[in-house]
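FIELD: query
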Amino acid sequence: MPTLNDLLENNRRWADKINQESPDYFPTLAKQQAPEFLWIGCSDSRVPANDIVGLLPGEVFVHRNVANMVVHTDMNLLSVLQFAVDVLKVKHIIVVGHYGCGGVKAAMGNEKLGLIDNWILEIRDLYYSKSKMFKGLNSDEEKHDLLCELNVVKQVSNLCHTTIIQDAWDRGQTVAVHGWVYGLKDGRVKNLNVTVNDKNQISEFYRLED
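FIELD: result
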């Protein structure tokens, strides 16, 4: 089991290695960040955003929480989203779930876990509302995988319903919202093909007008 001192030593070696290989790396990185991507993913330690897509620090802005949720009352997420859209001018927002997600699995059961039960309630609602889609599946793993995908699709919709995204579209800003799922077993990302580029792709009920 690594200790805190091990982590600090690892950092020293990593920084020295980067400096030797690319002396301009840290000075350039410190000047500014200009990512074109906002990654909204799960807090799971097995899902490192930059590594999965092969991007360096500074190339992807990241927000993570349990089960990659977009909750409309979550000021943390909304603050990240507004900064990414209004200040950094990201062009792509990617909701990235992952198969084997503990939060999604918990939402499929009835075990009382504490505060987290309130956080994953929307996923439990989703599981109930889409119950017919799960009846033809034979294994718990298949059901879990499907709910992981449906949760991503739902969170993409939640993003598109925010004033932050809709205001950006109204002023002609280019920003697209995507949904992906990452496979822990093979390291591959699955594109769920739910990309939304403008207001016309969402239900009229959720379109906000001045």
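FIELD: remark
The chain has a mean pLDDT of 95.
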